[in-house]
Amino acid sequence: MILTPKARRKNWGLAALFLFPSLFIFGVFTFYPFFENFRLAMFQTPPYPGLPSKYIGFSQYASILSSSEFMQSLLSTLFFVLLVVPTGLLLGLALAVAAHKALRGMAIFRVIFSSTVVTSVAVGALIFGTLMNPIVGFLPWLGINPNPPLLQSPTWALPSIAAMAIWQFLGLSFIVMLAGLQSLPDDVLEASRVDGAGAWTTFWRVTVPMLSPTIFFGLVVGTIYAFQTFGQIDILIGSQNASQLHVNVLLYYIYQSIQGTNPDPGQAAVLSIVLFVIILIFTLLQLRFVERRVHYAGK
Amino acid sequence: MPASSAPPQLASPAPKVTHHLLNYRLRLIARYLILTLGSLIVIIPIYLAIVNSLLVPSQLAHQPPPFFPTNPQWHTYPDAWSSGHLGVYIRNSLIQTIIIVSLQIVTSVLAAFAFAFLEFPFKRTLFVIFLSTLMIPFEVTVTQNLSTISSLGWMNTFQGLTVPFLATGFGVFLLRQAFLSLPPELREAALLDGYGNVRFLTRVVLPLSRPVIAALAVFSFLGSWNQYLWPLLVSGNDNKIRTVQIGLKQLAATQLDQINVSLAGTVIAFLPLIILLIIFQKQLVRSLTAGSVK
Amino acid sequence: MATVSFQGTTKRFGDVTAVDALNLDVEDGEFLVLLGPSGCGKTTALRMVAGLEDVSEGIIAIDGNDVTGLEPQDRDVAMVFQSYALYPHLSVARNIEFPLRKRISSKEERQRLVLDVAKSLDLDEYLDRKPGQLSGGQRQRVALARAIVRQPAAFLMDEPLSNLDAKLRIQTRAEIVALQARLGTTTLYVTHDQVEAMTMGHRIAVMNDGILQQVATPSALYENPQNVFVARFVGNPGMNIVTGVVDSEARSIHLGGVDASPGFLHDDAYQFNGPLSLGFRPESVALSSTGLPGSVSLIERLGSEVHVVVTIETGEILTVRQAANEVIPSLGDSVHLAVTGKVLAFDAQTGERR
């Protein structure tokens, strides 16, 4: 669309007016705090509130990143992400493949599988808290009574939270995979069948490669989702036990740094930067190693 | 098909047909088996929550716990509503969500219109800046935002709850794509008919983009209704402003002996969204998958 | 009522010159067709008149006034788009009313105008429908109605018939011509279809590669093309062109070194000397016992007439138009061609008419 010079000039003011609200919010609540992190990360929080904070430069990174608490948090986070994302995506894909064909009752199954997408963190936590409750939960109903209970065991607390996160991620994963499946052109799948490939071969050799953009999208979204897990831990485990039960994932660690009696903005800033960098690395890695093999049809 | 392996008998074609039919039936059964198993995974936790919300305290302690409420205690629901202040919390969540959803739509529509239809310097750079906000998770900025909000005196206010979320890079991206997919001739016809930018936006673009705006609305509704970390930090200490998600945490924390009431609260918070899902499934799917198909 | 004129009007997209120094005057009340293959710059020229494209050089004048820098809405022109560009969310009535809303404040007056125009185009039954509920032909008429209703100084039409099926296209063609004759509004009409151009235009401006090739009435364009491009582009099938050396003194024509003069019976062919491209219409050449030898490579039967395509010995391909009741050769037959009608001579290098 090319306009006459006069109209183009008139557009500048309007464009500025239209962009301003978004830019203002982004500036104040996204970019400013993001870059402020880098400044704050250079200052050590004083041991007692009220004292001036002290400039210590990059040594703050060193001291935090080398602490055993940080290592524990990082390992928990990575373990958690590796548990949640692949499982959630595979489960979503399997259910999407099963619910893809227009058969009797599919509409109901689709609503059921999508439903966890609308559950909030708190709802999910309370529902799963019940499921894993040592008295009223699912395990006692099966006659299993682990001691200590799942959510109080250093071994099982994190996998239990992961199970809940998978359950909640399932809805999104299913919706994305189903939409991906339904956007595939039927003719290619039919061609494969006519060419003599069985259902299994067609799925792995044709469907999955053609679905790779969707799977890639799911990986990115799932990774970000998993890194953001916070509320379930806050509700079901709580601040006191998070560390000793090995569920203090990075975000929870950040939360602990800014809440409580002696908040530590310097540490929170360093951890925020680390969280950002890790998410960025994960996304870029997926972009590099997965998208290279991703097959984009057309365009 | 290994037809050659068939024994050379005077066989009618019938066995082959039944073989295929059997195969088809088996696959159908397997498919429904997977579907049922998947449904159980999703439903059992929800079902257990509903059952437990209807039990009397004495049944709660019974081992093994009952899998069906023989004597449903419906009063747990009004109890959760009143003693857990759920009514107030739901109202707060609604206010917070309506502010965020409506203003997100306004800011996104304006910015997306600029990117789709207006010419201005640094357009590409600005668009990249908008997109880069998608790369910065809110959690990374939460520390600083908290001190910004607190220095503005907005702790425990709706401004504090909502203002940081009034712009969305995702919304701008989604709407820009939709605006660009409108036929360019419409823009040109409107120009010839004497319609400037603002009238073109209100009379042509908005009415034609209703479906995608609805998709954005559903997406942003879900996002703000289910927010947890930020409301916990900004409104956690104040009953009057607390949202339903934080309210649920309080309900769980303060009434451990009354798990039935806390689960009734959970169901109250959850059911409206399931209904919403059934009504707005199409819009939701559209917004959730906006980036997945290139 | 107005004239439209291009004065040295040029449009460049980066390195590409889409319209090159176009000089063209559309007279008041005239129906002028811009004809050319796709990418020839005809649509760009039209869009510059509408104000939808910037002008790189030169000016556009409407009724003698320079409008080059004006906004589209200030030019008092109406456009009919190839895709019709109807507002899908508005009813037919509201679509037609749309351009009036900024011009006429009285709602009754607007409704009266809409109804008048709708009646004149047989749209009054459909006023409450949405464009999506109309057939292609009806949509096209709504687009016309929207253009007509504001009584603009000029209509601009960008291939308005190309989305219609063949039969409807012929019918609508006649309707647009009648409408234009009745309203007398200056019309600039873009098409790539030479039949459309021939049947509709008072004059036709043929463009190629951004350059205006010729402006003339349909019959003049057919009879007297100014260059090889126009000769080939106008007419269906286009003019036959063979290249050879003519000696008017010796009354000889050599094609590929071989004397072909027995094939050229008309005196026209011997007017000029030297290397020439000779053009003749398919109806000016016939199968004969002597003349240019060749073999039949394709036969197209169109019902009333038959096109016999012959490859002559130089490899050039010529089309012969025959009546269906004449003797039709078979594919692969060896035949001879004799040019009996008018022959036009073009410069062999430049393609310009001699």
From TrEMBL, chain A:
Q: Which segments constitute the ABC transmembrane type-1 domain? A: 74-286
Question: Where is it localised?
Answer: Cell membrane
Q: Which Gene3D superfamilies match?
A: MetI-like (1.10.3720.10)
Q: List the InterPro entries hit by this protein, alphabetically.
A: MetI-like (IPR000515), MetI-like_sf (IPR035906), UgpAE/MalFG_permease (IPR050809)
Keyword check for Transport, yes or no: yes
Q: Coiled-coil segments, which residues? A: none
Q: Which SUPFAM superfamilies match?
A: MetI-like
Classify the protein's membrane topology as the record does: Multi-pass membrane protein
Q: Which PROSITE patterns match?
A: ABC_TM1 (PS50928)
Transmembrane segments annotated in the record for this chain? 12-35, 74-99, 111-136, 156-181, 202-227, 269-290
Alphabetical keyword list = Cell membrane, Membrane, Transmembrane, Transmembrane helix, Transport
Any GO BP: transmembrane transport
- Predominant subcellular localization, coarse grouping: membrane
Name under which the protein is recorded: Unannotated protein
- What is the taxonomic lineage of the source species? unclassified sequences, metagenomes, ecological metagenomes
Automatic annotation (TrEMBL), chain B:
Q: Return the Pfam families for the record.
A: BPD_transp_1
What does the record list as GO biological process?
transmembrane transport
Q: Which UniProt keywords apply?
A: Cell membrane, Membrane, Transmembrane, Transmembrane helix, Transport
**Official protein name in the record:** Unannotated protein
Which Gene3D superfamilies did the record assign?
Answer: MetI-like
| GO CC annotation | plasma membrane
Compartment(s): Cell membrane
Tell me how this protein sits in the membrane: Multi-pass membrane protein
Q: Where is the ABC transmembrane type-1 domain?
A: 90-280
Which InterPro entries does the entry mention? Answer: MetI-like (IPR000515), MetI-like_sf (IPR035906)
Write down the species: freshwater metagenome
Q: Does the keyword Manganese apply?
A: no
Higher taxonomy: unclassified sequences, metagenomes, ecological metagenomes
Q: Where are the transmembrane segments?
A: 29-50, 94-118, 125-146, 158-179, 200-222, 259-280
TrEMBL record, chain C:
Q: Which PROSITE patterns match?
A: ABC_TRANSPORTER_1 (PS00211), ABC_TRANSPORTER_2 (PS50893)
| Pfam families (UniProt xref) | ABC_tran, TOBE_2
Give the record's GO biological process terms. carbohydrate transport
Fetch the SUPFAM superfamilies from UniProt: MOP-like, P-loop containing nucleoside triphosphate hydrolases
Q: Which GO terms describe its cellular component?
A: ATP-binding cassette (ABC) transporter complex, substrate-binding subunit-containing
Residues covered by the ABC transporter domain: 4-234
Question: What InterPro entries does UniProt report for this protein, alphabetically?
Answer: AAA+_ATPase, ABC_transporter-like_ATP-bd, ABC_transporter-like_CS, ABC_transpr_MalK-like, ABC_transpr_MalK/UgpC-like, Mo/tungstate-bd_C_term_dom, NA-bd_OB-fold, P-loop_NTPase
- Keyword tRNA processing among UniProt keywords: no
Q: Which UniProt keywords apply?
A: ATP-binding, Cell membrane, Membrane, Nucleotide-binding, Translocase, Transport
In Gene Ontology terms, what is one molecular function of this protein? ATP hydrolysis activity
The question of whether Translocase is a record keyword is answered with: yes
Q: What's the protein here called?
A: Unannotated protein
